[in-house]
Prior knowledge:
Layout: H1 17-21, H2 29-39, H3 45-53, E1 57-58, E2 68-71, H4 84-94, E3 101-107, E4 113-122, E5 128-134, E6 140-145, H5 148-156, E7 164-165, E8 182-186, H6 192-204, E9 208-210, E10 219-226, E11 228-229, E12 232-233, H7 235-243, E13 249-258, H8 265-275, E14 279-287, H9 300-314
Parallel strand pairs: 8-9, 8-10, 10-13, 13-14
Antiparallel strand pairs: 1-2, 2-3, 3-4, 4-5, 5-6, 6-7, 11-12
Amino acid sequence: MSAFDFDVTELFDKESDWGKKFHFDPPTDEMIRRAEEKLGYRFPPSYVELLKTWNGGVIADDYEESWLTTIYGIAPEQGGYGALENMFENWRDEWEYPDVGIPFGETQSAGHDMYYMDFRTVSEDGEPIIIRIDNEFDNEERFVAKNLAEFLGMIYRNEKIDEKPLSKEENPLTKEERPMKAAVRYYTKTGNTKRLAEAVANAIGVEALPITTPVTEAVDVLFLGNSYYAFNIDPEVRDFVKSLDKDLVGKIVNFGSAAMLNSTYKKVKAEADKVGIPMDEREFHCKGEFKGIHKGKPDEADMKAVAEFAKKIMD
């Protein structure tokens, strides 16, 4: 299914010599990978579709409301005139634009401001927001659209684009549009819960850290690994939960292992309730080896199970 609800080729000047200078034959997958490596960003699906449909060009004169004049394509050779890879270095190194994403679009100012795909804010389906950076005003950043398809759609319909200053505090994407963020913290004395934490972290692409590492950035999900010690959770776990900021943690997901008792859920929830952080009703628990009991646990099957559990939580 196309990211665009219109024929993107209609946006471009196909007649003038100037327009032809910025247009190239459709790129191969190898050329796209080359450009991604050069820029250090993975191209969003909409941009790949655009490049394979119409690889760079000048916006046609019909779109009189458009401040955008040119969209960069990928040249057969890396240093091609007017191509993305060459222009990326120009804007970053010569003009000192911030390296926040892909500078894909020139404007009527001929370089004094640029349209960027801003990879600091990316939707769940891999689409970065579109911003305009004004080089003349100390690289002031303004939010333009939620993604490339929305931006080009507004240009295609000759709509006036109402920009607004890009706020570092406010995410322009709704909670449903942006990917869930997660963190993994654990407390262990035997190493069993650490192994489970590492399986969780590997499954969701983050790092497993001990509870001595505070949560300082906002996360939707905090996976908390712990166990019973002397029929209770350890005081360090209670102190860690007590230290959490409810404005930074969306919810806690409990997991762990133990030789005798089955779940620390109620104990952890009691502490979470005190700081106003909800607990997901789902949890993972398995047996853990202790003084020869349940030898070899958690085993490979447990590691696979906790990894699948974490993936389901993040779906």
